[in-house]
Write the structure tokens for this entry.
Amino acid sequence: VTSALALVSSAAAFAARRHVGQTRKGVAREPYLNHLAEVAFLLATTSESPEAELVASGWLHDTVEDTKTSREELAETFGERVAAIVMECTDDKSLPKDERKRLQVVETPHKSDDAKRVKLADKTSNLRDIASSPPDGWSVERCLAYVDWAQEVAASCRGLSSALDQAFDDAVADVRRAIAARGGSAAQEV
Ligand code: ZN
């Protein structure tokens, strides 16, 4: 892959093929690709000098965790930097979910600036999804606990891009409003 545009475009195409058939957890069952497109767009629009490898990593950040993709394959196709960023954003799926979430809080402060940007864009996208299309069956409490946890992880990712920090803060405010509105209507029904 030679040019910056080719790198980003081929990352998008690669992610589209690997995540084919996957959907988001939300009730709207959006294609998983929508999440990747949002993360890549956030990375492209919140950096002062957007870098193709960072944006490509946005497209690819869930390929190792959620599809049959190896680090070696990413390194061969997209280069060492992209492969390294994606691996930093990959949870060890052999661990229980709670332990993975705890490790994200503990380990994120020690990650590279590249990985912190991808993680902050990822959390921003996840919060926007919970605001617009909450996962099926998630209670108000579970949504709130997710927002609290996302803020904990995000705390160590801040300060690299004020625009990205702002996008995250806006997403937190919006999702808390949306959850409060849902909680309010649920309370009224009782
Ligand atoms: Zn993601």
Notes: The pocket of zinc ion is lined by residues 35, 61-62, 122 (CB under 6 Å). The two ends are 58 Å apart (CA to CA). The mean pLDDT is 94.
